[in-house]
Amino acid sequence: MKFDTLCIHGSDTKYDSTGAISVPIFQSATFAHPGIGLSTGYDYSRLQNPTREHLEKTIARLENGYDAMAFSSGMAAIAALMELFRPGDRFIASDDLYGGSHRLFCHISAKNGLTFDFVDTSDISATAALIRPETKALLVETPTNPMMQVTDLAAVSKLCREHGLLLIVDNTFLTPYFQKPLDLGADTVVHSGTKYLGGHNDTLAGFLVVKDAGLSERLRFIYKTTGACLSPFDSWLMIRGIKTLAVRMERQQESAMKIAQWLCKHKKIKKVYYVGLPSHPQYGISKKQATGFGAMISFETDSEKTALDLLQRVKVIQYAESLGGVESLITYPMLQTHADIPKEVREAKGINERLLRLSVGLESSADLIADLEQALRD
Predict the structure, then answer these.
(1) Domains of the chain: residue spans and CATH
(2) pTM for the whole thing?
(3) 27, 248, 309, 370 - which has most CB atoms within 10 Å?
(4) Roughly how many angstroms between the first and final C-alpha of the chain, as a whole number?
């Protein structure tokens, strides 16, 4: 079955006998037993709920995974994943990392005895140099947030197999429509479902997708024990959003390419970070491992004043955190997504007072370009 058909029909399990086209919202915390020692397959919604199960089966199929778990947010998913590890374990992660993940690792996971090494994971030799006997896993964002670095997933997968490391890939920016990390050797895929999977800026969600039964069993135990599961109604919103994932990703990518090319020519824009531009240093890797480039653009203005003026002046594009929805959003990483990262670390990566991140939505690309043009006018 083709990807866009899977988005619409998802799991082929039927949950009621009415013929309802839309999956029912089973808004129940608990389920009655038909008898002593018997179960309908659903006992308590923290363990499983039919609406959430449909969503999880859909995500697993889209990612070519064995199992998927739906969480109350992307950070809840990553926090549960950290419970696989023990005090003394080391963890390698992309150094250009979403600020919330960095905050979790450095303030919560570190408190619990984990140690982190941050590196540009697009540099395979630099990544390999950090591996020690106590290193247990490698977490890769690709493309990274917000500098759009791309890691060769086949190469890091080979590295992880050689050293017995768990490979975790955050696939939020490209989604399984454009990139399938499990097929490229990853053990676990992470998503902030709030973003492209939901696609409408109306609900929080997170996912872990795994490729084998052993990892599924370990994470399911953590999942039911820590309890940050996605609610039935939010699961239904995610199911609805995923139905249009394929068409949204195509249209948003088409607009992003036009906007990135326009930004490259503007006198007030000094640098454009978009993985679909042939000038991107890892353009060839993107072409090899992904079927598309997504709709995330970061760009550097000529001055702090230009960046601030743009944020104040945009009208169609909205100044807000988050990304991946039908509405175009522009973000100031140094004050929003990456505010908790030390200034010297931020600026070393290029996350400075001139850097902006644009999530291209479904508005007309002509309207979005016109909005940027008027916002950048002298």
Answers:
(1) 3-242 (3.40.640.10), 246-375 (3.90.1150.10)
(2) 0.96
(3) 248
(4) 52
